[in-house]
Amino acid sequence: MAPERPRGEDAIPQPAADETPARAVEPSAPRSAQPGPHLYAALDLGTNSCRMLIAQPKGSQFQVVDSFSKTVQLGVGLEASGRLSRASMGRTVQALRICQKKIEKHGVTRMRLVATEACRRARNSRDFMRQIRRETGLTVEIIAPEEEARLAVISCAPLVSRRTEQLLVVDIGGGSTELVWIDLSAVPPEDRSRAIMRLHAGFTPRDDLPSARVVDWISVPLGVATLKDQFNDVEDDAARFALMSWFFEENLASFSPYNSENPREGFQIIGTSGTVTTVAASFLGLRRYDRTKVDGLSMTSDQIDTVIRDYLSLGPEGRRTDPRIGRDRHALIMSGAAILQALMRIWPTDRLSVADRGLREGLLYAQMSADGVLGDGPYK
């Protein structure tokens, strides 16, 4: 188990007893008896997007065979009603039909298809999971916040520096933000990435190998969509941004590293989300997104602040037409930037490592690691 908090101190509000969402745990597809060089699928159904990767093991990593990404806005209206709307469920099912056709086309039998915060919170999520299975043949499971945090950490293993002794991994999603603080000081430098990968079995060490120690983790039920919804009634752009940033910081009070002294030396923050990669692309001036230039980029706090100030000076209309941001993200970039700025304010470090990877990559690494199909060697 992950470290527990005192009762009532968690940042995740507990739903009423009669409104507890379903948390499906059944497997997404039959698994063959012996692991081998199969194709693997990983699908992340979030509050804003539906994204899938199909990949095959290749050495110590994997090679992507096919992919899919679609903005479905599943969480629209959830904050007010507590339910997934008929329109958002319809958009999502249409996207999942495309995913099902890709899975069938490639003959994928080993897969994990998961849903996160929107489905954790919605009162009608159980009915929606049944609708998905009935209309697409796919079984999507709703994962707990701890597993979402763990998978985000695993996806970032290749970006962990040999010099890193204290690691903070931040995954800014549509409906929630996961933060995991890891102590790597007892792990030899050459084994630190692999120690992160071994967390696929859980946050608690299960063998005698040098282990990454999870100091604390938290899932804050505020992501780019849900935080934006909290402040829709604030008309002034700069005021709304400031309020969002401070409100997010207030929700970190129960995260133990928030109130402790943490050295800059040997400390690394890795940020994984559309917000972080968009800020990186804006810093690089990319009018057309290029993952090879963004993934693994190191940005200073000053560089991040400069990009955010530029976003504020553009205003809503300027952000809508800015090609570096893109039309799918312009409405959510300031709530994501507010979260990012709060994190850089709390932990004043010199640099942020940018990760164009997340839940899907974590799902693939976890499946392949469990099957023993990843070879030895450095992760990339």
From TrEMBL:
| Basic and acidic residues bias spans | 1-10
Task: State the Gene Ontology terms under molecular function.
Answer: pyrophosphatase activity
InterPro entries given for it?
ATPase_NBD, GppA/Ppx_hydrolase, Ppx_GppA_N
Q: Which parts of this chain are annotated as the region Disordered?
A: 1-38
Pfam families listed in its UniProt record: Ppx-GppA
Coiled coil residues, start to end: none
Ranges for domain Ppx/GppA phosphatase N-terminal: 54-368
Q: Organism's domain of life?
A: Bacteria
Cited PANTHER family = EXOPOLYPHOSPHATASE, RETROGRADE REGULATION PROTEIN 2
Q: What is the protein name given in its UniProt record?
A: Exopolyphosphatase
User: What is the source species?
Assistant: Gemmobacter aquaticus
Phylogenetic placement of the source organism:
Bacteria, Pseudomonadati, Pseudomonadota, Alphaproteobacteria, Rhodobacterales
